[in-house]
Amino acid sequence: MRAGHDRAAPGVTWAHLGLAWLVRRGLVVAGAVLLWQVIASGADNPFFPPPSRIASAAAQLWLSPLLVTNVLPSLARLLGGWVIAGMAGTVLGIGLGRSRMVADYLEFVLAFLRTLPPPLLVPVFMVLCGIGPTMEVTTITFGAVWPVLLNTMDGAKSVDPVTTDTARVFRVSRTRWVLGVVLPTALPKVFAGLRTSLSIALILMVISELAGSTSGIGFQLAITQGQLDLPAMWSWIILVGLLGSVLNQGLVLAERRVLAWHHERVGAR
Amino acid sequence: MSIVEVTDLGHTYGTGRAAHTALGGLSFTVDPGELVCIVGPSGCGKSTLLRCVAGLLRPSVGSVSYRGETVTAVPADLAVVFQDYGRSLLPWRTVAGNVEFPLRDRGLSAAERAARVAEALSWVGLADAAGRRPWQLSGGMQQRVCIARALAYRPAVMLMDEPFASVDAQTRADLEDLVLKLRAEADMTVLVVTHDIDESVYLADRVVVLSRSPATVVETLKVDLAGPRDQIGTRGSEAFVRLRTEVARLIRR
Fold first, then answer.
1. Residue B66 to residues B7, B60, B73, B156, B189, Cα–Cα distance (Å)
2. Domain boundaries of chain A, sorted by first residue
3. Is the confidence at residue A8, as pLDDT, over 50?
4. Does B147 touch chain A (CB under 8 A)?
């Protein structure tokens, strides 16, 4: 967007630029799919179907009730876990970022917990919570909370001493200090954390559904693989990819709105 | 009765070998309605002094009293204008939002807050910039926003820590005159910390001259300049030149 803005010549409207951008991106995607088609057709391997066959499987699948009955539960778990992780990470991150002592005590524990690969916890939570949405949401939350927590901590620490003095001088209340100064200061970092944790949440959604579930995209992935219905399996994979990029794009748009001041300020420098 | 009373104030940062004594026991008073400038060589501990007076820093020895009471926290009707306006203003708030921010916890209605913000911004000549962000403004304008924020808070005492050290000379002169004008209109006590000798004499009713670190009070000078201050007339007058020479001599000592 910014690059386009810099190059914008007088008389060239945003609509033009947007269209040109879309066409360019579209061409790249079309090229990649075409390449895939040529290679897969040439290979002629049933385990590696060409995109044309995947597309027809997808058309069939995505119009069937299976889509709703599997995508909705997946989406609910994904967003549920991610939102809980985001809120918990922001709240804890601000608390820990502002209290040096507690952060010092917990430093080792935090460092240990965040280095655990989240998929490792699937069996643990499976035993703890049993098979079902609780296990999936817990797994997603636990894996996705770290980037938000650590980023928010970092952001909350970075409140400028002069800003701190200013708030003290004007006797700003504690709530206003946290919500009106610390949180906005940390917000760019919070969003950076949310982006990372969204992709982790997506991974954990699929893994936890593969491991133990009776619905969901991961579950369908396992089933279609078992049935050797490979085009259908591939269409689920593509669905996961589409879901990920749509959610990510949504988050980017939300960030642009919420942090408009931040981006403009950085751009103005 | 004086409104601010500093008694044998001393402050030492750190302990043992790393200890650094910034203030070496100094005393002075500020009367209500007075404009006092604290002037001293760079790094003599002026900012430490101001932080103690503001209640932001607890001194190691001695005390600061405000309206007769010992300062242990920031007094309610005291405002500070910091040197670093860029770090003092909140970048996510508009100019008006920044001025309004400290009023939020004062139990004022939205209409009262808006009226105070508008008034303060017009005092500093920034009524047109209300909706802009601080970082879209020049340094001098940003410092005006900080001054407006302090004024909207209606303080009895306004402390200014090297308020014009980060702006260009012309802006500096404009801001000095702005402070003189506002101080006359708003019936405030003003305490300005500066390293600039000319500025201290130009602004003050009284100049407190500090020594090199650890700072002590070398001398307190009454500034008797005839008529309203004027950047060209006052600075060229014989009395001004005599006073600035005196201050310079005291600082060198």
1. 11, 18, 11, 11, 12
2. 1-44, 48-268
3. no
4. no
Rounded to the nearest angstrom, the minimum Cα separation between A66 and chain B is 46
Backbone angles phi, psi at A81, to 5 degrees: -60, -40
Per residue in A113-149, pLDDT (tens digit) is 888 888 888 888 888 888 878 888 999 999 999 999 9
What CATH class is the domain A48-268? mainly alpha
Question: Which of B:21-40 have CB within 8 Å of A?
Answer: none
Residues 171-200 of A with CB under 8 A from B: 171-173, 176, 180-181, 184, 187
Task: Domain of residue B130: give its range.
Answer: 78-154
Cβ atoms A151, A93 nearer than 8 A? yes
* Average pLDDT of span A68-73: 89
Are residues A160 and B87, on separate chains, in Cβ contact within 8 Å? yes
Amino acid at A70: N
**Residues from chain B contacting residue A171 (CB–CB below 8 Å):** 74, 76, 102, 105
Rounded CA gap, A195 and A201, in Å?
10
Complex-level ipTM: 0.92
What's the pLDDT tens digit per position in A142-198?
A: 999 999 999 999 999 999 999 999 999 999 999 999 999 999 999 999 999 999 999
